[in-house]
């Protein structure tokens, strides 16, 4: 009689998002023995990223750069150089991060931004995979509750109006093509053990990835546990008055199915008068906790004090969140 040998494998975790929240979670997860894949939004049209996007017709490189910086295994001194941003008095280079220029150069050299990012990831000894959600810049569109519509992430954010729903199109949509993710993104989603959404701006960092047509379908089909990291603060003009359940409902409504299996929710309270509202003028109030409403959306609430107070603002404790993500990934499969 022979006994079976159980082979332990690394959990495959896909983190989908953009902005400052995604690198924070990836940095926490990097401490664990997991196979990480970052899927990154490509709708940013502001700042250095927006300028390079418009001039070179490439995906905005900023979010890719920040993810690459935390997933890389090169020296901290090298990362400091990669993240260096030119001073505002530097004329044509003003405001550009060096890493953005490097990513733009790789896109031009390879004549393919996706391949350029993969080669640069190898050169920077990235532990895991970094995949832009599309191989071309996408335009974000929003319809507001008052019936009006706007295009462009920066304009939508600046409008400070209540959003009904969003969608994306290729920047060059003259042929009315639909946005599509590369096969690597779809395969990562379908083969994942766990998919993490957020944290980050619901309508401008998280959902722009999920409404790409083949990503939406892959999320419906994947056997992976899908986890949403609920935001700590509402975002002015985007999610004013939203509870955690409202965020989940918006995700499920955009997908057309209750895909979220669990919601990681912060129980720590932001002290009154702690936040510098002028410095962090995009935030509004602390997100209302509603675990029972989350259950009605088909998701399991997973709670903990995940609050980190720093720089006069309220943020997730990346290490604490990563620990919960790993506990879910290695727990019993209930999906």
Automatic annotation (TrEMBL):
Keywords (A to Z) from UniProt: Cytoplasm, Transferase
InterPro entries: CofD (IPR002882), CofD-like_dom_sf (IPR038136), Gluconeogen_factor (IPR010119)
Record's keyword annotation contains Signal: no
Localization: Cytoplasm
GO molecular function (one): LPPG:FO 2-phospho-L-lactate transferase activity
One Pfam family named in its UniProt record: CofD
GO biological process entries: regulation of cell shape
Any one of the GO CC terms: cytoplasm
Function as written in the Swiss-Prot or TrEMBL entry: Required for morphogenesis under gluconeogenic growth conditions.
Record's protein name: Putative gluconeogenesis factor
Organism from which the protein derives: Weissella viridescens
